[in-house]
Automatic annotation (TrEMBL):
InterPro entries: TMEM175-like. This is TMEM175 family protein. It is a multi-pass membrane protein. Pfam families: TMEM175. It comes from Janthinobacterium fluminis.
Amino acid sequence: MGKGRLEAFSDGVIAIIITIMVLELKVPHVADWAALQPLIPVFLSYLLSFIYVGIYWNNHHHMLHAVTRVDGRILWANLHLLFWLSLIPFVTGWVGENHVASVPVALYGVVLLMCGLAYKLLALALVAHHGKDSSLALALGKDRKGLVSVAAYALAIPLSMLHAWIGVAFYVGVAVLWFIPDRRIESRLAP
């Protein structure tokens, strides 16, 4: 089957995820700069999560651009990814409301870890469907950035329990690693 509905559905879900996240930014009832002070942790957690959702949307778009069709296994793998992405607003709000406490930061890492694993499963399903010699398979290669990301999340989770800011530093580091879009697919598909 074609990939159009999968792309449209995914784009819609990701747009809703971002909308839900921004609703956590409550408008102050006082019109001065001091009223914004308590919102700083909420805003910073929103900013990091917005970047993460943007990274996933960008890479999801590139990955699906490299394929022509999908099957049932790919649809379920994509839903699996969207499930974990849909939990980002919850953990984002929890981290922000609790001023970067250890347990919320650790759970944030669990959600990021599961997003990374779900993305990898989607990539594997797409490669299996299109073949190991497909443009996508050749572009993805060994996916070192993906493996480094998953390892960083797995390490950050227990380190967050020692000190929450250690986990945050790992999550920011992985976001920086992925902030520049993955050009492997673009370069493979360029005319």
